[in-house]
Amino acid sequence: MALDFVAGCVGGCAGVLVGYPLDTVKVRLQTQDASKPVYRGTFHCITTIVQKESVHGLYKGMSSPMCSLAFINAIAFGVYGNVQRSFSDPNSLMSHMAAGAAAGTIQSIISSPMELTKTRLQLQGQESITITPRFLHSTNTMYSYRSPLDCLLKTMQREGFRGIYKGLPCTILRDAPGFASYFGSFEILTRMLSEDDSGLSTTSLLAAGGLAGIFSWIVTYPVDVIKSRLQADGALGPPQYTGLWDCCSKSYNKEGLKGFTQGLNSTLIRAFPTNAATFLAFSWVFNLFCQDRRAFDFPMDKHTKSILWEKEIYRVNKIACIDNFL
After folding, report:
1. Entry pTM
2. 43-72 as b/e, with b when 16 or more CB fall inside 10 Å?
3. Residue 227: which pLDDT band, with cuts at 50, 70 and 90?
4. What is the per-residue pLDDT across 105-141, written as a single tens digit (0 to 9) for each?
5. Nearest to residue 178, comparing CAs of 20, 326, 282, 19?
6. Which of 87, 155, 287, 307 is 20 to 30 Å from 248 by CA-CA measure?
7. Within the chain, where are the H helices?
8. Read out DSSP for 49-62?
């Protein structure tokens, strides 16, 4: 169990490291004014950030998800496993989806403050670009954050304890169906791609993880846009929204339905590389400490002895990959 947890954390960190630049791009595209966009698209956003803020600008706030990854993994392991075992048929599709929804709901308590600090640190530095966004009005009062902890403390000082949980309802509305759809689609895909005799190859596992991530993001992305805007609100000026529905209505009135898909391309692009990095790092840890076992191209017999080793790698890697979905 300890090796499972360590491997899951290492895999999750590898996925964050690979996918974080595109996450920064996603947040900036989500929160910019669509009528006067600073960034024309994913590639233009990347080049602009690198030119104005150097490569470091793409990794602002990365320590926040890195530090919270162990807590999120612990919650995901515990809640997912216990809820799944509570069903009469733990291997049914419904048990996987229900366990995923429960894990997504509970872990939001940790992930919501983490994502608030991540979002605000990712947006920091845009004052070096000529920008007057409608959603984030620039003023002479610019809040500078040195670290995720500094961001949390300053947010609490200005907005109180509720401030660090701004966007929590949106996080739950995203993560509960997001985890459920991820685990459900992942399970369906692995069953479709696996065969009783040959099992599931590493390539098929990576494909299943990437496609499941893409499906989950498509399902939950509009809610993620609202979450980002709520959590960024007030970071670069006076607050613009009174709550979730106010943000939804104002966004729709100004941009229409298109406003709820800003940054989606960069999010879908990162699904496969983050999943691949997670799996490779995860398998490397298993291979390092268990030399007599195969960490790559393992068969996954879904009926018999797979639960002893192959099924264990499959289960833990699935938990690790979810860190990079959200």
Report:
1. 0.83
2. eebbebbeeebeeebbbbbbebbbebbbeb
3. very high
4. 999 998 999 999 999 999 887 655 444 444 444 444 4
5. 326
6. 155
7. 2-31, 42-53, 63-85, 93-123, 148-159, 161-164, 168-193, 202-232, 244-255, 264-269, 271-289, 310-325
8. HHHHH-GGGGGTTT
